[in-house]
Amino acid sequence: MNIDQKIIDRFDELIGRGTAIHTDALSGQLKFTIRDRKAGWRVSVLTLLVSVFGEDSVHVSEFRKLGGGHDNSLYVEVLRASKKRSEKSFFG
Q1: What is the rounded CA–CA span in Å between residue 17 and residue 23?
Q2: What is the enclosing helix (H) or strand (E) of 23?
């Protein structure tokens, strides 16, 4: 597996985790549990976005603009858009 595919796989993994956090939040899981999972997930996403696009990219900027209080589905949508951009860059 080449590095480009590993990056795409990491996007998929983080999209799945973000979606699971959103689903769990809607089902009424304890807020502190969701908050902790979401914080760790956001750090992982930002690390990926900075590594792939750079600190000053629109992807990093849009993700950071959301702050910490939004519905997780908004973060997941920014991540999905970033993945599409990566796929176009890597695979044409």
Answers
A1: 10
A2: helix 3-26
For the chain, helix, strand, coil in percent to 5 are: 80, 0, 20
Instruction: Please give the backbone phi and psi of residue 68, each rounded to the nearest 5 degrees, phi first.
Output: -115, -5
Is 38 in a helix, a strand, or coil?
helix
Q: What pLDDT digit, counting tens, does each position of 29-60 carry?
A: 777 788 888 889 999 999 999 999 999 999 89
What does the pLDDT read at residue 48? 96
Q: Centre a 10 Å sphere on the Cβ of residue 73 and count the other Cβ atoms it contains.
A: 14
Task: Count CB atoms within 10 A of the CB of residue 27.
Answer: 8
pTM above 0.90, yes or no: no
Which residues have C-beta within 8 Å of that of residue 28, sequence separation ≥ 6? none
Burial class (CB in 10 A: 0-12, 13-18, 19+), 76: buried
How do the domains of the chain map onto residue ranges? 3-91
